Amino acid sequence: MPDSLGTKPPPFVGQVSMKEVARLAGVSPMTVSRALSTPHLVKPETLEQVQSVIRAVGYVPNRVAGSLSSRRTSLVGLIVPSLRNALYAETIQGISDVLQRHGLHLMISDSGYCLEREEALISAYLAQRPCGLILHNTVHTEAARQMLQGAGVPCVETGNLAPHPVDMTVSYSNRAAGRAMAEHLVSRGYQRFGFASLRIGDNERLRERRDGFFEGLRAAGIAIDPAMVLEVGEGLESGSQAFAELIGRDASVQALFLAGDVLAAGAIFECARRGLRVPQDIAIAGSDDNDLMQQMIPPITTVRFPRYRIGVRSAELIVGRLGDETLQPASEDLGFEVVPRGST
Amino acid sequence: MPDSLGTKPPPFVGQVSMKEVARLAGVSPMTVSRALSTPHLVKPETLEQVQSVIRAVGYVPNRVAGSLSSRRTSLVGLIVPSLRNALYAETIQGISDVLQRHGLHLMISDSGYCLEREEALISAYLAQRPCGLILHNTVHTEAARQMLQGAGVPCVETGNLAPHPVDMTVSYSNRAAGRAMAEHLVSRGYQRFGFASLRIGDNERLRERRDGFFEGLRAAGIAIDPAMVLEVGEGLESGSQAFAELIGRDASVQALFLAGDVLAAGAIFECARRGLRVPQDIAIAGSDDNDLMQQMIPPITTVRFPRYRIGVRSAELIVGRLGDETLQPASEDLGFEVVPRGST
DNA sequence: TTGTAAGCGTTATCAG
DNA sequence: CTGATAACGCTTACAA
């Protein structure tokens, strides 16, 4: 996969090695190593001496060598479906905040919602011997599962409650969220529903959310017309289109659940353009709360997921495992919240 | 900085080493190495033999060892001011897309808009011996500059046209963008202006955009009242507040340039709530185009920056340098575009 | 508190 | 086309 990037004498930072620092400081390399990793075990004067040489020559330790020797890197790998999506940004920030506090570094890639690409990435990441792996996905290829299981690297799956986690999970239940939204809408008295989401494909999270929604409706004795179920692309524009399509198919529809991305906001914009009143003429609910949902006119009823917290807990589980390898596989359900607003 | 994460016998993926694979395949480790990196240099039958052992035992090469030996990693470091911000997401995606194509991996952190934290991150990243570094920032501490210069690692600065790049730059001119927006608004006939941005602090990009705006107004013989210049927090809500504050200070203001984040959209929402007509009662312009700006009612005039392209070109410059170390420092201006819409 | 010795698992190099 | 050998720059383990 990696194409060759030239084979000339490669660039390298280390003009100065630990050995050289040691020589200049008149100590052994081991003492320099200690001065860096366990300064309290070095005599103050020696420490001072070493540190001054380090500063003088601008020595930057080589973690590649260090990692090989100690058999431990400071890299945590993260694979998300998409980097563009603001959705994942919150989680990434949570992960990053925790890792940074612990001197760990985040390696990140996107699978483009493709399981085969995820598999390739997992393999490439394992080659870097990361000290942890976080996957925003709970469905993997068989090969990927095997690699993960065999690797013995702490691994957190997130984005959905995984029934059979490879190792650890931190998430919320998309199915329950969908159900809860159905219950909310039913409780408001709506009877005729429409549903749109991003393309589901391999996306277990969306599938669950949708199925949960249908389940909730069924529980209330309501069936949704298959013609009123849509998959569309990303972006506000798609939300507008989804709205147009659904209302075109059944003008008497009373409530739409537009699950994912900012589809619901796009629908509200479309309503405004058409002069439709929300929720009097039609109710609209979304998922993934953010300040746009809150600021829209009317503000949009959504399901809120604790995305930042999920990032934080995912990273914390990795860090915890590093500190204590006997920690058992954990599965955390961080829940969700239906936020009722003016749009329903 | 890294706090100790336990010192027990560390976890490791490599149940199987190259040596072991070699033994099982009845060849030397070097042949296994070649089978992996330069398969065309290995006799087909030997290759087949080695590959089948690799599959059988699930061997995952250890890139840490490989990197140490070859003195070359496949890691590119990226430091952005914030991971949350959708702004950077586009650029990150561009970088990631290119790196992935070349078998490189992205290490990412956020500096939280803090130069000292950026410095610490640069140092930590250099310790990983990355094959490239991308900084979404052009102003650094003196120590950071020195490290970067001494490191000899390909480095791209972005986010603003750097007058004195450490190595390479890929960007657009925030100053020119500010000026262009001033010219646009002046050309529409507005005379009394207000300006709000996120907190500027060490953020050279925002400072330049603001100064460019003032410069453009001055060039048209227009002065902006210092009381009509504001700094606010992030988010739509802040945009609403900025609007409220500015209009409160001078009800006769005709046009607002809300530079940064989604401030302009927040202002438009506030107008809607107050029943003000845009642009008849007041014109509003923003920066950083995205589909929200486009979908708002009215759609918002903005400056559009080629954020995805910037990511792509940044990564390409790194990759290019890896392939040919004699490539000279490049500085690319990818420009920007004022997108006139209904809000002005 | 410091030092010595022995790797860590690859790849560069050169010989065959 | 294949192999032997010597690094790569650090840390672990043990000794002094």
UniProtKB/TrEMBL annotation, chains A, B:
Organism: Cupriavidus pauculus
PROSITE patterns (alphabetical): HTH_LACI_1, HTH_LACI_2
Protein name: LacI family transcriptional regulator
Keyword Zinc-finger applies: no
Domain HTH lacI-type: 16-70
One Pfam family recorded for the sequence: Peripla_BP_3
GO MF annotation, one: DNA-binding transcription factor activity
Record bears the keyword Lipoprotein: no
Keywords attached to this entry: DNA-binding, Transcription, Transcription regulation
InterPro entries per record: HTH_LacI, LacI/GalR-like_sensor, Lambda_DNA-bd_dom_sf, Peripla_BP_I
Domain of life: Bacteria
